[in-house]
Amino acid sequence: MTLLSSSCEKKRNCRAFTLVELLVVIAIIGVLIALLLPAVQAAREAARRLQCSNHLKQMGLAALAHESGHGFLPGGGWGWSWTGDPDRATGRDQPGGWTFAILPYLELDMLATLGTDNQPDVVTTKQWEGALVRDQSPVATFACPSRRDAILFPRPGRYYRNAYPAGQQLTGAPLDYCANSGSLPFATSQGPSMGSTSASSHDADFNGPIFQVSALPLREITDGASVTYLLGEKYLNPDNYFTGNDAGDDSGMYEGCGVDTCRWCTYDPNGDGNPEDALIPRQDTPGLPYFYGFGSAHPGGCHFVFCDGSVKSIEYSIDPLVHSLLGNGMDGREVSPDQF
Fold it and tell me: Are the C-beta atoms of residues 177 and 59 closer than 8 Å to each other?
């Protein structure tokens, strides 16, 4: 009888959570999640930044391996109306851009040889079909993970004289990195007409390591490989990450020198002495077109690989003059590492 009474008494003293207590617990959990979420996002972005930096490291080492094997850095290609041609040699005889030149050094020989027909002066069906497949084969190394995945996106841009005709390239893989073409006012062209066997050099119009019709030996970077940009992240308008409507992101990733594959570090692009117009790195900004300069989706700064293979994050607040000097590898003006 006593045990039964004790059990009943315990049951009467048991109580559940009240609604107020439950709401307090939920609120505490919500606050903890709100506090942890920025830390989780920051950790994810740090991982993406590291991956992006590694992409540039791989491309930089591939470019240096190309220089070691051929005696000059990957060429910039003939111009924006040309794409890679596996039947032509690397260097000034290669119409495709630097991305095409480094494919063998990224262990992507199969992509580099697509469309081989042993007829460099004739555009055959095999050649343009191979070029189309190459442009529609995503390469993870060419995409910044903070911006987008290495998948296919619309590519409504220009046709190529040595590949598929207008209207054939409906989609293509992304390229989020560009070569440094120097600090002079930007200058590119569509390149020579069809039927040419080579293109004339434009050395006088450029002072960076990779430019239109370039084949620059590393020894000509006289200011020092460690203080001269080689490749960097290119600026894009976030509104057009997935549309192909950015003028610097509307074509194939192997085309010759143009704003899809090359960018500049010009201090005074308008020639008016106003450094506010300088092409400094910028963070991707909705509604802002800026397809001649470098930039990225990362907060704080964007990555560059230098001509010695080192990778550094350059702040968006870098002095415009210092940025232009880092873009020019041949002017004899010294830049110390503590300036960037």
Answer: yes
Is the CB of residue 88 less than 8 Å from the CB of residue 95? yes
List Cβ neighbours of 41 (8 Å cut-off, separation of 6 or more): none
List CB contacts of 319: < 8 A, sequence separation 6 or more: 339
Residue with token string 């850095």: 73
Other CB atoms within 10 A of residue 15 CB: 6
Q: Which of 265-302 are b and which e, b meaning 16 or more Cβ less than 10 Å from the residue's Cβ?
A: bbbbbeeeeeeeebbbbebbeeeeebbbbbbbbbeebb
Q: How far is CA 275 from CA 31, 66, 219, 269, in A?
A: 46, 36, 30, 9
**For residue 4, what pLDDT is reported?**
44
Q: What is the chain's mean pLDDT, rounded?
A: 88
Question: Does a structural domain hold residue 236?
Answer: yes
71 found inside a domain: yes
Across 22-31, 38-47, 87-96, 156-165, the highest mean pLDDT is recorded for: 87-96
Own/partner long-range contacts of 278-282 (Cβ < 8 Å, ≥24 apart) = 278/320, 278/321, 278/323, 278/324, 279/186, 279/323, 279/324, 280/316, 280/318, 280/320, 280/323, 281/232, 281/233, 281/235, 281/314, 281/315, 281/316, 281/318, 281/323, 282/235, 282/316
Name, in order, each residue with C-beta under 8 angstroms of 125's C-beta and a sequence gap of 6 or more. Answer: none
CA distance 139 to 151: 8
- Max distance between CA atoms of the chain, in angstroms, equals 110
pLDDT of 3 above 60: no
Domain range for residue 91? Answer: 48-339
**Domain assignment of residue 25, yes or no:** no
Backbone phi and psi for residue 234, each to the nearest 5 degrees, phi listed first: -100, 145
Number of structural domains the chain divides into: 1
Cα angle value 188/191/193 (rounded, 5°)? 155
Q: Please give the average per-residue pLDDT across 15-42, as a whole number.
A: 69
What burial class does residue 319 get, using C-beta atoms within 10 Å of its C-beta: 0-12 exposed, 13-18 middle, 19+ buried? middle
State how far the Cα of 71 lies from the Cα of 68, in Å rounded to an integer. Answer: 6
